[in-house]
Specification:
Layout lengths: L4 H9 L5 H5 L4 H4 L7 E6 L6 H4 L2 E2 L4 E2 L14 E8 L6 H8 L9 H9 L8 E5 L13 E2 L3 E2 L6 H9 L1 H4 L5 H6 L2 H4 L1 H9 L3 H28 L31 H17 L5 E6 L15 H5 L7 H25 L13 E6 L15 E4 L10 E9 H11 L23
Parallel strand pairs: 1-8, 1-9, 4-11, 5-8
Antiparallel strand pairs: 2-3, 4-10, 6-7, 9-10
Helix pairs in contact: 1-12, 7-13, 13-15
């Protein structure tokens, strides 16, 4: 930068003084007010459900949760429970279901589609995380696809995911993000300021010092506002100091052992929460295990996929499958509560400005069908979604739900993949 003195001072004295602040990541605390970002999370849990023990009963607002979703009772006001949505066309059973749950038989998944349209405002367009999602997943069954239906492999390592987002790979350079955010923009260009100052006359030097001090005061207010709102404070991440177990590259990779499943999952959800707080990305996905899940939790003497073949809905095996679903609902609740506890730049919670889509690849796991899918939405998408409801969509196409989610994110489309049941979003879904 080598402007003449008059241009330099004119720039500082006018609107250009504020422009560097607007482009710095920590300055989003100030600039986002009045236009708070919306965010989307796509969460997958494996192997479908027992519809009669999953979907609520009752009316839209006066409903009762069923056994499989009972852990969500404490956060039901933040959720919309959807029944009667079917996935049409495309492949069958596990493989076909996971391939179309976010694509609707389109050529890319909704998370990728949204990331391409919303990601230019953030350092990362999206993040795709997993919890043992690549373990014994020989078929490569994932639910995220880039253009041309190219599978996107999720990152199962939360420490790596955090370092990528906030370390050297997170915004350039080796300096930790927290330190970069605290350091003044003036300090970054101090050499340029000093060089310019040495060439100025007394009057112009006084003007430069005045504008420099004004800029520092603006910076101070922004940084103080960020500290008060709790924005981008990543110091609490991994407070238990979990480390990737030795043998990450062996078989089985120790990070994929069942004993680490919950810890890994919660760290991944913490990464998402921190990334949203810092506006590092606005689209995220989290894949718990994968279709035909090998997960075996302590206290359950059958594996996840085995229990999904439950036989009679009131069988002993079915009861074990209910336990697995309740387990994953507790993890879903953790994410909801985590986002609800964090304040966004507009004074609302992160949850209020987010929509979460919980999905699976099957409807009735025993039948391997794609009817009456176990779908739940959470968050308010900045006010676009009214929660605390149960809605039966009577056999409508799940691709309309994908359209509605895009519309909630202010991406205006009227179709996404399958249109055999018409175009547009789901009637009565948006607030």
């Amino acid at each position: 930068m080598n402007p003449n003195r008059r241009q330099f001072l004119k720039g500082l004295g006018g609107s250009a003084l504020a422009l560097p602040l607007a482009t710095m990541p920590w300055a989003r605390v100030a600039t986002a007010q009045g236009a708070t970002a919306k965010r989307a999370i796509f969460m997958y849990i494996p192997d479908g459900c027992i519809p009669q023990r999953f979907h609520p009963t009752g009316g839209e607002f006066d409903f009762q949760l069923n056994e499989m979703t009972s852990p969500l009772e404490a956060v039901r006001q933040h959720c919309l429970f959807a029944s009667g949505l079917n996935m049409y066309e495309g492949g069958h059973t596990h493989e076909g279901g996971v391939a179309k749950v976010l694509t609707g038989n389109n050529t890319e998944s909704l998370d990728y589609f949204l990331a391409q349209r919303l990601g230019s405002a953030t350092p990362f367009k999206s993040m795709n995380l997993g919890v043992a999602a690549t373990f014994q997943n020989g078929a490569g069954n994932v639910f995220n696809f880039s253009s041309g239906n190219v599978p996107i492999t999720p990152n199962d390592n939360p420490i790596n995911a955090f370092d990528t987002m906030f370390g050297a790979g997170g915004n350039g350079g080796d300096e930790p993000l927290a330190d970069r955010r605290k350091r003044s923009i003036l300090d970054r260009v101090l050499a340029d300021l000093n060089a310019m100052n040495s060439k100025l006359g007394q009057n112009e030097r006084e003007k430069l010092e005045f504008h420099t001090q004004s800029l520092r005061e603006v910076e101070s207010r922004i940084l103080d506002a960020g500290a008060e709102a709790g924005v981008c404070n990543t110091g609490g991440f991994n407070s238990d100091n979990f480390t990737v177990p030795e043998g990450w590259n062996g078989y089985p990779p120790k990070i994929h052992l069942d004993e680490h499943y919950q810890t890994i999952g919660r760290l991944q959800m913490d990464v998402i929460t921190e990334a949203f707080s810092c506006d590092m990305t606005r689209v995220a996905s989290l894949m718990w295990s994968h279709p035909v899940s090998p997960l075996r939790l302590e206290g359950i003497d059958q594996g996840h996929h085995d229990t999904s073949h439950y036989g009679a809905r009131d069988s002993e095996t079915a009861d074990k499958f209910v336990q697995y679903k309740q387990y994953h609902m507790r993890q879903f609740r953790y994410l909801i509560e985590n986002l609800a506890s964090r304040t966004d730049t507009d004074g609302n919670s992160l949850l209020h400005n987010t929509v979460i889509f919980l999905c699976s690849e099957l409807g009735d796991s025993n039948a391997h069908d794609h009817r009456n899918m176990p779908f739940i939405l959470a968050g308010n998408a900045g006010g676009a979604l009214q929660t605390g409801r149960y809605v039966d969509f009577g056999g409508d196409a799940h691709s309309k739900l994908l359209v509605s989610i895009a519309n909630m994110m202010d991406v205006n489309i009227d179709s996404f993949g399958y249109t055999g049941h018409g175009t547009g979003g789901l009637p009565g879904l948006l607030a």
